[in-house]
């Protein structure tokens, strides 16, 4: 149990003062005789009490001794019943009910003055006050009472309820009639018991929580205390009280409703104030998740509370307002945390802090930090309700897209301003590697519409592209004069020139080994594209004109051999650019062929693979074939006026090549 024991389930009920009693009847000395058969039958619904205790109390007495038999089977006097009740003998309930009925019979018979009737009624009612206090005194802490003693009290309460109903039915049948007696029924003891249960709930849930657990707010401690207390108390009611209480008392429902109402009232009051971000989240967590799932539908209570319509702890309007506040708070928090993470990462770049190495790759914690921030925001919302998790997902996607744009801008500034730093290239590689974590997070962790990832990840693609271009900038600068040799030597030794180019690239590839494998492949595709593009540029310079078929076939053979070397080297080093495989061999075939019609077919096919292959590019290649007439060149060029359609979504090749 929590701070207080579940033994305190019901608080003390204020005892009412009994009316003044006449002192006319002196206490009579009790004699021990056998009970009369009639009186024994009257007491048969009760269990006999225990032996007399020295100092009995209203809540704890077990019944001091058996009620004493009366001479001649007569009913006990008022004073005798008073003594019995003061000693906790609930068996006195039967004779008291008989006295009440005797009084009603006297009214019906007539012959007794109103003054005398009222005097007797006041004494009977005073006894009922004593009986009520005894019964409700036992029921206010039912777990402290012995089971048989509790059954006695419940039997008295049930009998009084039956009498209330009978009196109401008789009054309804007879209609209003003048009476010398004051109306005393319905006594509504069952309502008093339920009121006591409500007081118990208020006392139990209102107790001060245990010493503060570190890191928990005051509201959070209060929720935990109330939730734990309610669950444990209701489990005690189910296990220990339900078997003893009459079914019509609905003891589990009575306690559950009282605890629920107090819990709900406390939360409703709290919701009126401006809560901290933490308290807003915790309040929603209890209302929408912990209370309905961990308490109401807990294994021991779910079946018992299935028919008790407790409802929500807060109104739908209050919940909507709190959810809106939570979403706003959480999105703002996520935005702030991501901005702070990027700022710290940017400072490390500018301060030339070397990135970590993880499994042989340059590693940055930025992606992990951002993913954790986003995931925690998502998880918090889903811990309240799945619907709230769906709502925040779209909001977090917007914030992630904005962050990635900001990340790209910061990275571009770093690329531009920090080129002279020692760890410049390592930090570039680390940031390219970050793109993999972000890409996996979006593609695999979040099930989002397929058109969103491309839009969301476009800043990452730009970041990666700029980073790769930066890494290759120096290498491509070294290769430029080597490619110029093709035209400078009029393609006299193309094999040797290309081998030297390949050798330079091969020597520089270890510089990129700290990229993740997928990005090293993408970088290799960029290298592959660069080699093919630069080769075509040299072919398109119009400085080489071959007038014979033999020379054209010889050049075509060189181009095919060079194409095979480029393809083999790049593929061997991880380039996935199979789309480049036809680029050079087909140009070689166009140069080799002599029949204009055959050339047209080859050009038409080439244009389906490379839709950006224009008439200008074709003219530059055909310029190598000095034996073609102008009309033949125009005829071949015209084939590009026919839209044959591309075989697949194409990447840029010839659009990167400028021709005069």
UniProtKB/TrEMBL annotation:
Gene Ontology, cellular component aspect: exocyst
Any one Gene Ontology molecular-function term assigned to this protein's record: SNARE binding
Biased composition (Basic and acidic residues): 18-27
Segments of skewed composition (Basic residues): 28-37
Keyword tRNA-binding: no
Region entry Disordered, spans: 1-76
Pfam families: Sec6
GO biological process, one term: angiogenesis
InterPro entries, alphabetized: EXOC3/Sec6, EXOC3/Sec6_C
Keywords of this entry: Angiogenesis, Developmental protein, Differentiation
Family classification: Belongs to the SEC6 family.
Function text: May play a role as a mediator of inflammation and angiogenesis.
Protein name: Tumor necrosis factor alpha-induced protein 2
Organism: Balaenoptera musculus
Source species taxonomy: Eukaryota, Metazoa, Chordata, Craniata, Vertebrata
């Amino acid at each position: 149990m929590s701070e207080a024991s579940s033994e305190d389930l019901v608080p003390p009920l204020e005892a009412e003062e009994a009316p003044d009693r006449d002192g006319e009847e002196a206490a009579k000395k009790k004699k021990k005789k056998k009970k009369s058969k009639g009186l024994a039958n009257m007491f048969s619904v009760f269990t006999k009490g225990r032996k007399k205790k020295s100092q009995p109390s209203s809540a704890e007495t077990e019944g001091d001794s058996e009620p004493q038999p009366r001479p001649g089977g007569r009913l006990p006097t008022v004073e005798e019943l008073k003594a019995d009740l003061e000693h906790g003998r609930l068996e006195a309930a039967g004779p008291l009910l008989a006295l009440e009925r005797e009084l009603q019979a006297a009214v019906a018979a007539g012959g007794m003055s109103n003054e005398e009737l009222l005097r007797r009624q006041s004494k009977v009612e005073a006894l009922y006050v004593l009986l009520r206090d005894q019964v409700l005194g036992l029921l206010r802490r039912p777990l402290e009472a012995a089971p048989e003693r509790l059954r006695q009290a419940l039997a008295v309460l049930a009998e009084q309820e039956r009498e209330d109903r009978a009196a109401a039915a008789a009054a309804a049948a007879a209609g209003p009639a003048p009476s010398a007696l004051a109306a005393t029924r319905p006594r509504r003891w069952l309502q008093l018991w339920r009121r006591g249960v409500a007081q118990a709930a208020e006392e139990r849930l209102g107790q001060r929580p245990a010493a503060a657990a570190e890191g928990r707010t005051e509201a959070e401690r209060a929720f935990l205390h109330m939730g734990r207390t309610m669950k444990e108390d209701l489990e005690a009611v189910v296990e220990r009280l339900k078997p003893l209480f009459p079914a019509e008392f609905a003891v589990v429902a009575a306690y559950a409703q009282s605890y629920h109402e107090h819990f709900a009232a406390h939360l409703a009051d709290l919701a009126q104030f401006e809560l901290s971000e933490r308290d807003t989240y915790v309040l929603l967590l209890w209302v929408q998740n912990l209370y309905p799932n961990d308490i109401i539908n807990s294994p021991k209570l779910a079946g018992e509370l299935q028919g008790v319509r407790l409802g929500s702890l807060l109104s739908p309007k209050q919940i909507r307002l709190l959810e809106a506040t939570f979403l706003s708070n959480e999105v703002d928090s996520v935005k702030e945390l991501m901005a702070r993470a990027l700022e710290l990462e940017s400072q490390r770049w500018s301060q030339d802090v070397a990135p970590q190495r993880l499994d042989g790759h340059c590693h940055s914690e930025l992606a992990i930090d951002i993913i954790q921030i986003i995931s925690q925001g998502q998880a918090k919302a889903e811990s309240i309700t799945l619907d709230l998790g769906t709502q925040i997902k779209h909001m977090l996607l917007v914030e992630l897209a904005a962050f990635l744009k900001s990340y790209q801008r910061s990275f571009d500034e770093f690329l531009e301003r920090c080129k002279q730093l020692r760890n410049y290239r390592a930090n570039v590689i680390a940031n390219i590697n970050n793109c993999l974590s972000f890409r996996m997070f979006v593609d695999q962790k979040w099930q989002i519409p397929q058109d969103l990832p491309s839009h969301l990840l476009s800043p990452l693609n730009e970041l990666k592209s700029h980073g790769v271009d930066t890494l290759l900038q120096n290498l491509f600068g070294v290769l430029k004069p080597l490619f110029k040799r093709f035209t400078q030597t009029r393609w006299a030794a193309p094999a040797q020139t290309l081998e030297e180019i390949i050798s330079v690239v091969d020597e520089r590839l270890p510089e990129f080994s700290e990229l993740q494998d997928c990005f090293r492949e993408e970088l290799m595709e960029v290298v592959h594209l660069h080699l093919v593009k630069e080769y075509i540029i040299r072919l398109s310079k119009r400085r080489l004109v071959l007038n014979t078929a033999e020379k054209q076939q010889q050049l075509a053979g060189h181009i095919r051999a060079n194409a095979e070397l480029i393809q083999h080297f790049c593929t061997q080093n991880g380039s996935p650019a199979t789309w480049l495989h036809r680029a050079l061999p087909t140009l070689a075939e166009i140069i080799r062929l002599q029949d204009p019609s055959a050339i047209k077919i080859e050009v038409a096919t080439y244009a389906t693979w490379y839709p950006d292959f224009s008439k200008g590019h074709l003219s530059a290649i055909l310029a190598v074939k000095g034996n073609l007439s102008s009309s033949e060149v125009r005829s071949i060029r015209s084939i590009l006026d026919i839209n044959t359609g591309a075989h697949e979504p194409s990447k840029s090749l010839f659009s990167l090549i400028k021709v005069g």
